[in-house]
Structure formats: C-alpha cells, structure tokens
Amino acid sequence: MRGPTGCRYLADKRQQKYVVDGWNITGDAFYQDEEGYLHFAARNDDMIVSAGYNIAGPEVEAALLAHPAVKECAVIGAPSQERGQIVEAFVVLNDGFQQDEECQHMLQDFVKQTIAPYKYPRSLRFIEALPKTSTGKVQRFRLSQEHYPSAGSPGINMNSTDINSTDTNV
Hints:
By secondary structure, this protein is α+β, with helices and mostly antiparallel strands. The protein folds into 2 domains: 15-43, no CATH class; 45-147, GMP Synthetase, Chain A, domain 3 (2-Layer Sandwich), CATH 3.30.300. The chain has helices at 14-18, 57-65, 101-114, 140-147, and strands spanning 19-20, 23-24, 28-32, 38-43, 47-50, 53-56, 70-80, 84-93, 123-126. The strands form 4 sheets. The protein has a 3-stranded mixed beta sheet with strand order 7-8-9.
C-alpha cells in the first residue's frame, strides 16, 4: 500500500520498519490472478516455505476444518533439515474420533485431495486444546515455542515424546 497516510502515527524508529520508500509494509502476502486482481493469501508470519514452495497456513487449516473429524486446528512451519520447514498441524478432534495413526492418515489424505498435495501436513499432532488468548484467538507462536523452544527461529526437536501426538514425516 502506498499513499500519504501509511503509518504516520509511528513517530519513532518503528516507522523505518513499516514504511519503505513510501510503501506501507503490512506484513500480508497476496497473489495476483490472471485478470490482475490481488487476493489475500496469509500474513507473512503465517507463510510456510517448504522445499521452495510457499504454503499459506490458513489454507491448510481451512482444508482440515472441512473434515468432520476436526473440531479445530492450527498450522505452523516446523523446522526440517531436508525442506527448511514442513507443514505441521495441531488438531483437536470432534467426539467420536480416535487420536490414532489411521485418523492421521485420513486427515493427511483429505488435505491432499482438497488442496494441492504438496501442502498437506507432513506432521500432524493431536492435542486436547489449542492455546488461545482471552478473546479466543489461536496463539500459533505458543505452539512453536513449546515444541521448538530454541526459537527466535524454531529448533529441531526430533525426539518428541508427547503422548497426545502422532507425527509422520512422509
């Protein structure tokens, strides 16, 4: 976005971060369709780069939420030595569904059939509840901090022993 308003209310050093050459840096990622229209994809901090592919976490979440087994979910980029990051989903199941490998594969296959197959969660953890703010907004950063504590940038935790999770690195 470029214009006379921008982030003028930031009368300090933060202004340099949010306005560059007159452009207001929103932190949002968009794509342009063949007709020239811009469409919101995700916040930059919700974008996962896996093996060179840009994957919008909210798109994967929407695919998972379309399955009747999923009550709620959150998706983050988990560190991967081979891919840079992989899509990792944290899933709260609806009643009547089992936290098992069969359910995990069912959800992964569902995502592959719903959106581009390379976007499916290569790691899927079942959890009882997602961390949220007092207003109900999911706190994805807490999932990253808890499971990859050597953050600034997430670290690699290859020895997760969380008994409420099922991981698959396919």
